[in-house]
Design a protein that fits this description.
The protein is mainly α. Helices cover about 50% and strands about 5% of the residues.
């Protein structure tokens, strides 16, 4: 994080640790502005750096992780979706990525209007591919954050905006969608029943649609 101050929120290193006054995005009003601003920083200041971090067996590790989660937490989605999705992923040359690029991990400086990221994530089963971050942005295109705070909202995918994000990023929309599916699977065990059911229904819809093609 220290190596990329244009990407991550600056931290004032004193004792005790003090952070400048930053705020979270206003869900429903600033979603698109925040995501585009965050994408700009990922594209121009983070993804441009090569990364040596790429385990050759990441695909097997990811499949194992997802199947284990599904069994352990008794998640309600077709297990074939795991293998079909993971095996369709293509990885380009490893790059530095955020790993958890959602609205929940963005903060804004109210004085300057500048957005920056927090809380990067690294896992052995997640390769250093910018499509991982694009998939996380797509997760917010499902309005994940609104589902968390609005009990009556079931989720709606903003496909037009997702295509715009992929085009601006210079990345493959379909590969971003595959990673979005992976991210949704991974977040299920950590949600309350209402949120889990909403995203299990989304996964069931995705699986049904994929079987039609």
């Amino acid at each position: 994080m220290d190596a990329h101050p244009k990407v991550f929120i600056p931290v004032l290193k004193t004792t005790p640790l003090t952070m400048p006054h930053w705020r979270e995005p206003i869900i429903g009003r600033e979603n698109q502005y925040a995501l585009v601003s965050g994408l700009h920083k990922l594209k121009n200041h983070l993804w441009s750096h090569s990364s040596p971090y790429l385990r050759e067996n990441w695909r097997l590790l990811l499949e194992h992780h997802l199947h284990l989660q599904r069994r352990t937490h008794r998640l309600d989605f077709n297990e074939d979706l795991i293998d079909r999705t993971v095996r369709s992923i293509k990885v380009s040359k490893p790059r530095l990525i955020h790993g958890d690029a959602t609205l929940a991990n963005m903060l804004a400086n109210p004085d300057t209007g500048v957005w920056r990221w927090i809380d990067p994530l690294e896992r052995t089963y997640i390769p250093g591919d910018p499509h991982v971050d694009l998939g996380k942005l797509f997760q917010s295109c499902w309005e994940y954050e609104r589902i968390l705070i609005d009990a009556s909202f079931k989720g709606h995918f903003n496909m037009v905006f997702a295509h715009q994000l992929a085009e601006y990023a210079g990345l493959d929309y379909n590969q971003g969608q595959l990673w979005c599916i992976i991210h949704i699977m991974r977040l299920l065990p950590y949600q309350e029943a209402r949120v889990r059911i909403a995203f299990e229904e989304i996964l069931s819809c995705i699986f049904s649609t994929s079987m039609e093609h």
